[in-house]
Amino acid sequence: MKRPFVNITPRERVGRVLVGLAGAIGGLVLLAASGGTITSVFAVLITIAGLDLLVTGALGHCPLYRRLGHVPASLRRSA
Predict the structure, then answer these.
(1) Whole-model pTM?
(2) Considering the domain boundaries, does residue 47 fall inside one?
(3) Average pLDDT over residues 7-23
(4) Of 1, 26, 16, which Cα lies nearest the Cα of 61?
């Protein structure tokens, strides 16, 4: 399997990992403490969003950026 190219700057990668980790942990805490169905659904959505940010930050590849054709200026100059 070919690894996708990096299309996220190093600063954005760190930010995505940190925010994603906080979102995933916060969502799991909310899920454990939630009592209602709606609260549980929102907690699951927060957890999934956090995991998405965590994975895209760790890989350095954002599928949405690729689809939109976005490449940060700092990565365009080095390529």
Answers:
(1) 0.82
(2) yes
(3) 95
(4) 16
